Amino acid sequence: VAADNSRWSDPSLYQATRRPVDEASTLPGTVYHDKEFAQLEEERVFRSSWVAAAELCDVSKPGDVMPVNVGGASLLLANDGGTVRAFHNVCRHRGAKLVEEPCSKRRTILCPYHRWGYALDGRLIATPSFDDTADGRRIPEHIRQKFCTSHVKDFDKSRNGLFPVRADSALGLIFVNVNGEAPPLSEWLGDLLPSLSEYESSFGVGTPGLVPYKRKQYDVPANWKLLVENYLEYYHLPAVHPELCNVSGVDEHRRHQGRGMYMCFATEPLSRGGTPIDPGRIPPFPTLRPRHQRMAYHVALFPNTFFSLYPDSLFRVILSPHGAGRTVEQATFLSHRAAFDAPGGEAVLEDMFQFWDLINTQDIDIVKNVHQGTSTPLYTGGRFSFRFEETLHRFQNMVIDKMLVHEPTRYRIPDGDVDYHDLLAAPDPLLPAAASG
Q1: Alpha carbon distance 226, 228 (integer Å)
Q2: CA-based diameter of the chain, in Å?
Q3: Residue 135 pLDDT
Q4: The sheet that has 65-70: what strands, in order across it?
Q5: Residue 317 exposed, middle or buried by CB count within 10 Å (0-12, 13-18, 19+)
Q6: CA 238 → CA 174, 249, 251, distances in Å?
Q7: I need a surface site. Which of 3, 119, 280, 404 has the fewest CB within 10 A?
Q8: pLDDT at residue number 156
Q9: pLDDT value at position 207?
Q10: What's the confidence (pLDDT) of residue 209?
């Protein structure tokens, strides 16, 4: 990375947040409002990370194609015979944007400008009126001379395919890494994958196992980091989500973080307090042992997605920043086919979705408040609540690692909590030790 003069490249600006959590202060309010910081984040955070680009079910069938935006880069995803690939969304001829809306049953990606065509693996396969074959068919003999390109030099279709982008899938999501420099996705997600292995067949490995029930887009006048940070702590539950406390109580929460670019806490056990998301209303994921049928995971994947994983469903949000003061949330509520097919299943799923919509709207309202408050010049950061906000400290230090592009910590993957493996081995609190599992 070339030298730069940005003040946000100065490690001394982050010293207070680099300290241990029980001594540290949060990032200053300016990081949520400064235009330069937001512009640098596009390159330093989003283009250098594995970013959740879409739900795997959105491009689950061969021929599915959809546009996405990551770190200011316009990309497209294409299902090529079951393999989801990613490319920059630009024609190699004159730079036209290739895909504007999701589409299906596509065999080629056709440029709307001059009809150059690309296979779903990115190969350039058609250049109408540029060479003597068009869409795989030879130009008629009587006009072929008019389009003869024997005089064209140094043009090779095989070298003019779409610009590829690294893509991979896990946890029912498609991830992309724009700059191609991040560690492998399995290393990025680290210990999270084995800890959720019982869910993976329901998420889908290569093919989607999750079925979307309903989606909603939220346009939020606030910085994306505040939305992540709000999700990362349960300190605010009694004040902001009293309804949620009836199923996911504050005292039943604990951190669940191994090595990896993620933040996580769990609720164990879940309560049955009469909420729409109480466990047992619809069948659980079929691969879960009894313990997981009574607990929930709350996961944030750095940098831009978070989800609440319950025994029978999950509510997931993918964030797309639009400058310092606006974030678009794409929220999807998903379950598995047995939940849809259960008696009254879809009515229960509707109740659940409405509950999650309420919770997410409550979060958005308080985050809008925080966004306004952090604009006060006197707010230069506050002390972390070490009991509840270690996850925020972990997240903010990931952001700092990415912003300090000249430091060796740029691609650091944090270790897990010191008691992570002890918690994994702990007995089920509701069963005798000999019967736990």
Answers
A1: 5
A2: 86
A3: 43
A4: 51-55, 173-177, 164-170, 83-88, 73-80, 65-70
A5: buried
A6: 34, 9, 11
A7: 3
A8: 84
A9: 55
A10: 78
Looking at the DSSP assignment, which residues form a beta bridge with residue 334? Answer: 212, 314
- In this prediction, residue 116 carries a pLDDT of 93
* Strands lying side by side in the sheet with 117-119: 108-110, 117-119, 124-126
User: Is 350 buried (19+), middle (13-18) or exposed (0-12) by CB count in 10 A?
Assistant: middle
- Whole-number Å distance between alpha carbons of 313 and 284: 8
User: What six digits make up the tokens of 335?
Assistant: 């379950």
Give the pLDDT score at 436. Answer: 47
pLDDT tens profile 88-144: 999 999 999 999 999 999 999 999 999 999 999 999 998 876 655 544 455 566 655
Say if CB 172 and CB 203 are below 8 A apart.
yes
Q: How many CA atoms lie within 13 A of 373 on its CB side?
A: 9
d(Cα 359, Cα 234) in Å, to the nearest integer?
A: 13
Nearest one of 172, 181, 213 to 59, comparing CA atoms:
172
Instruction: Tell me the C-alpha distance between 411 and 261, whole Å.
Output: 10
Tokens in use for 234? 């349960």
Please tell me the predicted confidence (pLDDT) of residue 423: 65
CA quadruple 287, 292, 295, 296: dihedral positive or negative? negative
Token pair belonging to 119: 């296979």
The structure's pTM equals 0.92
Identity of residue 26: T
Which residues in the chain show pLDDT less than 70?
1-4, 129-151, 205-208, 422-425, 429-437
Joined tokens for residue 204: 């889908």
∠ Cα 303 209 306 (to 5°): 20
| 252 half-sphere exposure, CB direction, 13 A CA radius | 20
